[in-house]
C-alpha cells in the first residue's frame, strides 16, 4: 500500500507537464518514477512474518489507578524492519498513546509500553496489535489483513477491580469488630454470646459472669468471658437487573451495591464469618461459595469485578431456589437492590416470607441523593421546583410504603443515599453481630 | 407548552394565510376574467358572443364597408394586395400574428392602415415598427380623447385605457392608449384595449363610435381573425432578392412567389443545421480549447488526489467497539412526573403531595399515630389550629405564585415545628 508521501511525490511532479515540451511524456515520466520508487520501497520493506509479539505487565488494577502493559516486539527475520504499530484496547481501558514507531534490526527486541487508566470495572481486553512495515523511502508499506493481525496478537486481559471508596471507613469498622471481639480493652470485655475462656476475676468485671462452679474448683473467683459468634454465614446477593443499571450520580447503581458488598465481605471475613456471593438478574451471573477464610475474599472481589448490569427484570424466584435448598444453613442474607415499587412488590415480596423463615434477611436499597435534594425547596423556588419536590415526595412516600411492606414480611430494610450506603449496611451487620442475632 | 406555542404561531400565521388566500383568489379571478385571444370567439366578426365582434362587423356593413375575414396572415396579405384601393388590416390578435413578417417593408401595400388591438411588448419588439409598451393597467379604464384626432374627438370618452404606448408622437389619444405611427407609407394604429370592439362593451361610452371610426376610414377591412400561433416558414437569408416586390405593387398577382422562392434555398439549408454531431472525424472542441499541458497537469493532480485518498483509506487498525453502560439517570421517572404535573398545571395535586408528606413527617415527629388529625398536630405543636389548617389543608392555588407561596408555607411550618430553636415557643 502507498503512503501519503507517495501522493506528495506525485504533487511535486505537477508543474513538470507544463514546463517540459512534451506534457504527456512528462506525465508518464512522473508516474513511472513514483511507481518505481514505491515498488522498490515495497520490496525492500522488512517482512512481517518474522515478528514475534509478547505481552507482559499488570493483570489486575483497582479502578481509578493506572496500569501498565508492555508489548515486546522481537524481529526474528533476517532483515531490519521499520515498524509502525497500533496497540488497540477497548475504549473503556483508557489506553494512552496507541501508535508507536520502532526500528527493529534483525534479532533484536523492543518494548512498547501502554499506560492504561480504565474507566469501568470488569475485564478490559487488548483487542488487536496492527503491524505495518515501512520501506526506506516511506512511500509504500506492507500491512496484512485484520484477521492476520488478530491472530498474531497475544491475548491479554486487564481485570479492573471495582472502585472501593468505602476503604477509608474500613479501619473504623474494623476497630468496632475488635471491640466486639474483646481484643481491645474498652469497658472490660468483649460482647457476645459464645463462651470464650475462664479467667480470674478482676475488679470491674460483671459479677453476673462469675462462674461459681469453676471458682469452687480453682479456689479463686473465676469469671467466664464471652466472644461473638464465629463461622456465621453472610450471603451477599447482588441484583444486577435493570434497576442496577440506572445511574445514581455519575455511576451505575450497581457500583454502589458492589462497594457496600465489598465492605461487608471484608468486615465479615475479618470477624471470622463465611461470606458467599450470588449475583443474579434473569440468571445467576456470579456465584462464590465455600473455600477458606483467607482465599475467599480475593475470589469475591474477582467475581464482583466482572459484574455488569443487564437491562432485564430480576427473577427473584431464582434467589428463592438458591436459598431454600435443604443443605443451606441459616445465613444473614443481604440483598443489594433498589427499592422500586414494581420489582419489589411483584418480584421479591412473594418469596420473602419463605426466605425470612429460614434466614435473616436484609434488603439494602441504594437511594438517589438527588431525590432527597429535590424534595427540599430551594430558597427562591419556581413552579417547576415545587412540582419536582412534589414528585420527589411521591417517590419517597412510595419507598416508605415498600419499606413497610418488606418489614412486615420479616426483612430488615436499609434505604440510604449512595454516599452513606456501605457504611449503613456495615453498621447493621455489626449491630446484629454485637447482639448475637446472626 | 407546545399547545400554547402552536396557538401563538397560529396567531401569526392565520392573518397571512387569509391575506394570501385573498390575493391569490383575486389574481385567479382576474386571470379568468381576461378574454383569451386563443378563444375562437375573441373579436371574431362572425361571433355573437360577449367577446366577439359581430356587432361591430354589422355596423361596418351598415356603413358600406366590406369586411373580409381572413384566418391566416398570408391569406390576409394576399387579400390586401388583391384589392386595388387602400384597405384597413385589422389585427385582433397581434400577439399570435407574425408581426415581423407584417412589418417588413413592402409586406403590405402602401397607404394601407393597420389597426392592432393591444399588442404586447414581446410581440412589438419582433416588429420593425418603432412602438413600445409604456405600461399596462390592472383593468381597462375610460379616458377622454385629449387629442385633435377627428375619430377620437368624435367618439368622445371610450374604454381603451389598458395598455399605453410610446413614442408620444403628439397624436396620441386617450392618455397614450391610442397611437398612430407611420412607417414606410403604412399607418399603424395601436388601440390599448380590446373593449371597444367587443359585443358586450361596444355600447358603452363612445366605444362604438371609436371602433367604427377607426375601421371605416377605408371602404374595405381585411379582418385577420387569428386564434392560434401561425407556424411561419423560417425566412431564408436573402428573401428580398427573390421577393416579387415590383410587380406585386402594380397589380394583384398570386402572392405565392415568396414562399416558393424561399423554399428551394431552405431545403438544403434545413438538413445542414444539425450535422455537427453527425461527423465523427471532427476533434472535440473542448479538448481543442486547452493545451495538452493543461490536460496532463489536470490528470496528474487527479492522480495525486486519488493516491492521497487511497493512502488515507487504509487505516492502521480499525476502531474497536464495545457495549456501553446505560446512561439513564435513576431519577428520570421522577423528573418526568414533575414535568407532567407542570405541563398539566396540576398545582392542586402537587400541593396535596407536599402537604401529605409534611403531615406524615409532623405526625412522626410529634409522636402521633399515622393519619392523625390536624387538630392533634396543632395541639401537640402549640400552634393555632386555624393556622395549621390553612397551611396544610387550605384552598388550592390558582396560579404559580400562589403555589410557590403555599409550598414555602408548608416547608416553613414543618421547619418551625421540627427544629425547636427557630420554632414557636412551647406554652
Structure, explained:
The complex is a heterodimer of chains A (about 450) and B (about 425). Chain A contains 15 helices and 19 strands. With about 450 residues, chain A is an alpha/beta fold. Chain A has three domains: about 5-45; about 50-160, Immunoglobulins (Immunoglobulin-like, Sandwich), CATH 2.60.40; about 235-435, von Willebrand factor, type A domain (Rossmann fold). In chain A, helix 5 runs parallel beside helix 8, helix 8 runs antiparallel to helix 9 and helix 8 packs parallel to helix 15. Chain A is elongated, with a radius of gyration of 33 Å. Among the domains of chain B are: about 55-230, no CATH class; about 345-420, no CATH class. Chain B has a six-stranded mixed β-sheet, with helices on both faces. The interface between A and B is large, with 73 and 56 residues.
Lay out the secondary structure.
The complex is a heterodimer of chains A (438) and B (427).
Chain A: H1 4-12, H2 16-19, H3 23-44, E1 51-57, E2 60-62, E3 67-75, E4 81-89, E5 99-104, E6 109-116, E7 122-134, E8 141-142, H4 146-152, E9 157-161, H5 170-181, E10 194-200, H6 212-218, E11 222-227, E12 233-239, H7 242-245, E13 247-248, E14 251-252, H8 253-270, E15 274-280, E16 284-288, H9 293-305, H10 316-323, E17 332-337, H11 341-348, H12 352-358, E18 360-367, H13 369-375, H14 383-408, E19 411-417, H15 421-434
Parallel strand pairs in A: 2-9, 12-15, 12-17, 17-18, 18-19
Antiparallel strand pairs in A: 1-3, 3-6, 4-5, 4-7, 7-8, 7-9, 10-11, 13-14, 15-16
Helix pairs in contact in A: 5-8, 5-15, 8-9, 8-15, 13-14
Chain B: H1 2-33, H2 54-62, E1 66-70, H3 73-82, E2 88-91, H4 99-103, E3 113-117, H5 121-125, E4 132-143, H6 150-155, E5 158-166, E6 178-183, E7 186-191, H7 207-215, E8 220-224, H8 239-242, H9 245-250, H10 257-272, H11 285-289, H12 292-313, H13 332-343, H14 347-365, H15 374-381, H16 385-393, H17 400-418
Parallel strand pairs in B: 1-8, 2-3, 2-8, 3-7
Antiparallel strand pairs in B: 4-5, 6-7
Helix pairs in contact in B: 14-17, 15-16
